[in-house]
Q: What sequence folds into this?
């Protein structure tokens, strides 16, 4: 009976112990990287804006893609991806504009990447992808299809023109 109550020790080979330690360290580094990306750099998964029937886009907000001013320096951009172009092709916003993008595809899977901004996701027919970014520097930024979508894929891009704040203010006053 006393033999049954003895503690049993599991022997772990030295190499197995080193592998377990290495794996534990790698998992720790992986999770630390995820947390740092979220906390420091603002990396977030693409928001899910809902679903639409890609064959009935003319009955949704994608019937009239474009840029909408939401007040202040906030905008909404409804973007439709279709073989081999984005609609609208050019959007102009003032410096400092916060733009929320709603993007879907009419036909095949496309990519949606905005140069020098933290927006990059797949555009899947029937899914509305949502992302928000702020344009703090004047210039022209390309929206690029980052997912191979066919033989003219390399030609699929559009532009976001960010005007300096003082130019945008003058244009708005002249437009009134």
A:
């Amino acid at each position: 009976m006393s033999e049954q109550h003895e503690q049993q020790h599991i022997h772990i080979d030295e190499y197995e112990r080193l592998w377990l330690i290495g794996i534990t360290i790698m998992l720790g580094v992986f999770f630390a990287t995820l947390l740092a990306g979220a906390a420091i750099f603002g990396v977030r998964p693409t928001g899910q804006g809902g679903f639409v029937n890609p064959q009935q886009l003319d009955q949704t907000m994608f019937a009239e893609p474009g840029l909408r001013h939401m007040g202040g320096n906030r905008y909404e951009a409804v973007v439709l991806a279709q073989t081999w172009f984005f609609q609208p092709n050019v959007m102009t916003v003032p410096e400092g504009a916060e733009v929320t993008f709603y993007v879907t595809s009419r036909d095949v899977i496309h990519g949606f990447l905005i140069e020098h901004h933290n927006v990059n996701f797949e555009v899947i027919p029937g899914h509305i992808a949502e992302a928000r970014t702020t344009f703090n520097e004047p210039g022209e930024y390309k929206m690029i299809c980052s997912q191979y979508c066919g033989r003219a894929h390399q030609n699929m891009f559009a532009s976001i023109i960010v005007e300096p704040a003082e130019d945008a203010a003058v244009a708005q006053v002249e437009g009134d």
User: Anything to note?
Assistant: Confidence is low (pLDDT under 50) at residues 172-176. The first helix runs from residue 14 to 39. The helical segments are 14-39, 165-175. The CA atoms of residues 22 and 28 lie 10 Å apart.
